[in-house]
Design a protein that fits this description.
single chain, about 400 residues, alpha+beta, Penicillin V Acylase, Chain A, 2 domains, nine-stranded mixed β-sheet, seven-stranded mixed β-sheet, 9 helices, about 25% helix, about 25% strand, globular
């Protein structure tokens, strides 16, 4: 009788063990599939950390860092010929990086900025940049070197990715959204000592018109062009070659120009304008062509520029005659441009070190500068040492607060 009772119990136990075994196999298989698809993305999200907390009283957003694992599909992006608008960029990122799980909402708000190149007393080539906007969260993005590509460090405004400016980065979905950050750099440096920044130009008179070239070249948007330069350029000439190889489509119905520099001390400003137009009539973005202003060949844009080896850029176009017949105040950032040029000209573009260059950026910080637009904060200031391949980075004009000052290297 007992034997008869035991057999069913053993059978049930065997069935339960078999079910558990099958479930374990399924869970392990599912985990393996998820890890196989998402392993780089999982590692990247896991690397996100807060470097500095927000301070609403000073209009400071929080600062984060993220170490990107893998190539974030940039080679695939290049192979497909890029994209011609933000909608296509969002689709690419959704399909490849978030694998269709998370939808993105990318924007590019109106920004102001200042940049310059200089030489340290020890001969190091420097590139300084202020990013002017309003309170927002930022992220320092580190990418890895791979065959044919450089390790980089860049800064992204998380508002571009739809992250709330008045809240800390929280929740897995927002962290997954940050996987798109490599495609929205504002400035950066690579391990070859090439640095690049992007700056609004407000082209087209009363209504800003985006550059939208329309030839048979591949298409790239504003920040993705900067990403290509950081990842693939060994020097300024290669950066110019990259910019010349694509049709530029500026994001968010606005217009931009760039400055790029390398460890040799060479730099260039890249602008897209209509040859026959002034700012008031430059209303067809498809007719703009690339103009390159090199630091050793920029006499055409001004006497003082021609007499110096450093360069300065803010938010107006430098092409001669572009503002003919246009009110002086239409040259956005002309006051900051003059201030920076005079500060550098006093020493022929030579500064003591990175901190001295940072002090020049501080002098045009927007919390104290008489702004000519609605941007009232300098969100970050950075001095890239192109010789040493390092970055001195300060959050939200907190120049005297050691907890807001960071030093980085693309290869760290």
């Amino acid at each position: 009788m007992n034997a008869v009772e035991v057999k069913p119990k053993r059978s049930v136990k065997k069935i339960l063990l078999a079910v558990v075994a099958v479930l374990v196999v399924l869970v392990v298989a599912a985990a393996a599939v998820i890890f196989g698809i998402w392993h780089n993305e999982i590692g990247t999200v896991a690397s996100i950390k807060m470097l500095r907390e927000r301070n609403d009283d000073h209009q400071d957003g929080a600062v984060y860092s993220m170490n990107v694992q893998g190539g974030f599909y940039l080679d695939d992006f290049v192979a497909q010929g890029g994209v011609s608008n933000d909608t296509e960029l969002i689709q690419f990122i959704t399909d490849h990086i978030t694998h269709g799980v998370v939808d993105l909402n990318m924007t590019a708000p109106t920004i102001g900025c200042s940049s310059f190149t200089a030489t340290a007393e020890n001969g190091d080539a420097l590139f300084g940049r202020n990013y002017d906007f309003s309170k927002t969260n930022t992220m320092l993005v580190f990418t890895e070197a791979s065959e044919g590509r450089h390790a980089t460090i860049s800064t992204t405004d998380l508002q571009f990715l739809g992250i709330d400016v008045d809240q800390d980065l929280s929740g897995l979905m927002n962290e997954v959204i940050c996987l798109a950050a490599p495609y929205t750099p504002l400035d950066g440096i690579n391990d070859a000592g090439v640095s690049c920044g992007i700056y609004m130009t407000y082209q087209g008179g009363d209504k800003t018109v985006a550059t939208a070239q329309d030839t048979d070249k591949p298409d790239f948007t504003s920040t993705t062009l900067l990403r290509l330069i950081l990842d693939y350029a060994d020097n300024v000439e290669e950066a110019v070659e990259i910019a010349s190889s694509y049709d530029l489509h500026d994001s968010a119905d606005t217009s931009y120009h760039y400055m790029v520099a390398d460890a040799s001390g060479k730099s260039a400003i890249l602008e897209w304008t209509n040859d026959a137009a002034t700012d008031a009539t430059d209303n067809d973005g498809s007719q703009r062509t690339l103009k390159v202003i090199y630091n050793d060949q920029d006499s055409a844009i001004g006497e003082r520029e021609g007499a110096s080896n450093f360069q300065v850029v803010t938010n107006f176009v430098l092409q001669p005659g572009y503002y003919e017949g246009v009110a002086a105040e239409e040259k956005k950032g002309a006051d900051r441009y003059d201030h920076l040029y005079e500060a550098l000209q006093a020493t022929d573009g030579v500064v003591a070190d990175e901190q001295a260059a940072m002090d020049i950026l501080r002098s045009v910080g927007r919390r104290t500068w008489d702004s000519d637009d609605k941007n009232n904060c300098t969100v970050h200031s950075v001095v890239y040492n192109l010789t040493q391949k390092t970055a001195l980075w300060v959050s939200n004009e907190n120049y005297d607060d050691p907890t807001a000052v960071f030093s980085f290297s693309p290869a760290q």
